[in-house]
Design brief:
Helix content: 10-25%
Order of helices and strands: HEEEEEEEEEEEEEEEHE
Number of helices: 2
Largest sheet: 9 strands, mixed
Structural class: mainly beta
Shape: globular
């Protein structure tokens, strides 16, 4: 009887397992094709870039399709700056190499002549952003974290009074930018130190005690960013993280300041740099 019992249980388990592997095709509707525009304009003197691409299907593994032949311009209230498409990178549009943003100015990006669907019907898009002021940095320091295995980059600076400010931090190690994607951007507001000295607040982290060594050069970029861009970065980072709980629905789409139902963001902000050597 015991043998018969085990045979019966085994048969039921096999039946249950086979019933769970029945193939089932799910039909996913094709999403709307939308224009994706992204650009950052800073107070650095350099060739600033704006990318113009098409959105892809949800399950697509292909890179976003670039949009060539657009007319891309930046208006600073006095002068119209025309961007040129990079000959080696379709869909990437560049300012001149001597272009830089000025604190307090409002910049308007326009992208025209976009044939999104390839049917000859062109679309136009625009966005505006104002560059906020930024204070000087006293110094930065690199030290091993007290509780986590890694190195903390600490900032010493005076935060401006009477205004709420929003900061973005980027970091380079030996002249190589470590903050190479938006999901690696570190952002914060000044709610905890508004109008005061930061007194060595940790603003960047290198994971692992072997990440840095004596003599390494650390350069920290402190950027003063608009409030809406601050929220955009947080929403991008949230949407890139795994869902919690595991099978919860997707997060809301990140905000966009691009007109005409486009996706993406155009941000103008100020920045300053400070270096230190790991001891």
């Amino acid at each position: 009887m015991k043998t018969l019992y085990y045979i019966t249980i085994t048969a039921l388990c096999l039946l249950a397992a086979s019933s769970c592997t029945e193939p089932y095709d799910v039909e996913v509707k094709t999403g709307e094709t939308r224009c994706i525009i992204y650009g950052e304009l800073t107070t650095d003197t350099m060739a600033h870039r704006v990318s113009v691409t098409k959105s892809a299907e949800y399950f697509s593994n292909a890179a976003a399709e670039p949009i060539s032949g657009a007319n891309v311009n930046i208006w600073d209230g006095e002068t119209l700056h025309t961007l040129s498409e990079d000959a080696n990178n379709p869909g990437i549009y560049l300012t001149s190499e001597n272009f830089y943003g000025e604190v307090g100015k409002t910049y308007t990006l326009t992208v025209d002549n976009v044939d999104l669907l390839g049917n000859g019907n062109t679309q136009s898009y625009s966005a505006t952003s104002q560059i906020p002021p930024i204070s000087a940095i006293d110094s930065i320091a690199a030290g091993k974290h007290k509780f986590f295995e890694g190195w903390e980059i600490k900032l010493y600076a005076q935060d401006p009074e009477e205004t709420q400010d929003y900061y973005l931090f980027k970091c380079s190690l030996n002249n190589t930018l470590d903050t190479d994607t938006i999901t690696n951007y570190q952002v914060t507001d000044d709610i905890l130190f508004n109008g005061n000295k930061t007194n060595g607040i940790g603003v960047y982290f290198f994971e692992g005690y072997d990440a840095l060594k004596t003599g390494d050069i650390i350069e920290l970029e402190v950027c003063s960013i608009p409030k809406d861009f601050f929220k955009f970065v947080i929403e991008i980072k949230t949407s890139a993280r795994p869902s919690v709980p595991l099978f919860s629905g997707p997060p809301a789409n990140p905000r966009s300041n691009i007109s005409n139902n486009a996706i993406g963001y155009f941000a103008a902000y100020s920045k300053i740099r400070k270096q230190t050597v790991v001891k």
